[in-house]
Amino acid sequence: MDRRTFIGSLAGGLLAAPLAAEAQPPSKMPRIGFLATNAPAEYPDHLEAFRQGLRDLGYVEGQNITIEYRWAEGRVERFSDFAVELVGLKVDVIVATSSPLALAARNATRAIPIVFVTAADPVGQGLVAGIARPGGNVTGFSLLAPETVARQLQLLKEAVPTASRVAVLSNPANSYTALLVKETEAAARSLGVRVQPVGLRGAAALDSAFSAITKERPDALFVLFDPVLLGHRTRIAEFASRNRLPAMYPHREYVQAGGLIAYGADLRDNFRRAATYVDKILKGAKPADLPIEQPTKFELVINLKTAKALGLTIPPSLLQRADQVIE
Fold first, then answer.
1. What does pTM read for this prediction?
2. DSSP 75
3. How far apart are CA 27 and CA 19, in angstroms?
4. Helices (H), strands (E): how many in the chain?
5. Which of 91-100, 141-150, 213-222, 312-321 has the lowest average pLDDT?
6. Residue 17 and residue 147: Cα distance in Å, rounded?
7. What are residue 221's DSSP bridge partners?
8. How are strands ordered across the β-sheet holding 66-71?
9. What is the Cα–Cα distance from 88 to 85, expressed in whole angstroms?
């Protein structure tokens, strides 16, 4: 090749390069579907933990990743419709904040990967085939709720040694509630406590549930894990305080709303860790091969202000074990 031919070829290559670059289709920005049980105001810490988890992995919402939010605001009838909407948007992965939402999403698609953030009994609920190898298009994070209720009831008994009758507030609409109630009853028998289950089906039934609890005249209240109940935590905590009922709750959010004591998995940590599974799936991992992960952080939170209002003295040994004491 002579000098003139070489220069011509080089110039042609330089001219073609920008044209080739322009011809390349822009890379597709990943899109996440975010299905939430309650209203946006219920998730400030949880949502920030999820976003921070994404940022730690290099994803910034609006810059290199898009999130489509659907807030059910505690209305179970919205679960399926919102899941179908996200499937219609062809999102790359669906994050479901609760197992009922994950079930709704799985009923809407067997192709789009689904990551649940909290589940009490993922195998028993039929979400996955197994813990180590979930199979299908669903994976996520467990709360170990069935295994923790015994510990929660024991801590309540330590805080209120005289409690012999305990009202148990639950949401029968969730398939795992029967398991949680069974675990609670077994733990109660070993502690010499009599429990009275009270079911709550949505916000409209709050007053009737409260009336049923009051009628039983219990010594304490025990609230089981449930995302719908979590959305009504302020009203539940106010009811307990108004009726001078010491109460055990499954998460710190209840205590921040004025509840007495909580023991359970740190929900913020589960939301943060959910981002790691989103990242793996976007990079090609299959949900079927991602094992269900257990909680890594549990916390005991006590509200001393509420204890004083109830005329209750929390044993020093219990206070020393608390991760946080609100005064």
1. 0.86
2. -
3. 17
4. 13, 12
5. 141-150
6. 62
7. 167, 247
8. 66-71, 31-36, 93-96, 114-116, 138-140
9. 5
Domains of the chain: 31-143+267-297 (3.40.50.2300), 145-265+299-326 (3.40.50.2300)
Q: Rounded to an integer, what distance in angstroms lies between the CA atom of residue 65 and that of residue 216?
A: 51
Token pair for residue 4? 């003139």
Cβ atoms of residues 119 and 138 within 8 Å? no
In this structure, is the dihedral angle defined by the CA atoms of residues 88, 275, 255 and 249, taken in order, positive or negative? positive
Q: Which two tokens stand for residue 5?
A: 């031919």
List the beta bridge partners of residue 198: 169
Residue 172: what residue type? P
β-bridge partners, 303: 326
Other CB atoms within 10 A of residue 34 CB: 23
Render pLDDT for 219-252 as a digit per residue (tens, 0 to 9): 999 999 998 899 899 999 999 999 999 999 999 9
What DSSP string runs through 307-326?
HHHTT----HHHHHH-SEEE
| Alpha carbon distance 136, 307 (integer Å) | 47
305 DSSP 8-state letter: H
Among 72, 126, 134, smallest CA distance to 103 is for 126
Residue 20: predicted pLDDT: 41
Q: How far apart are CA 25 and CA 149, in angstroms?
A: 53
| Element housing 30 (H / E) | none
CA distances from 196 to 1, 146, 216 (A): 93, 18, 8
Q: State mean pLDDT over 86-103.
A: 96
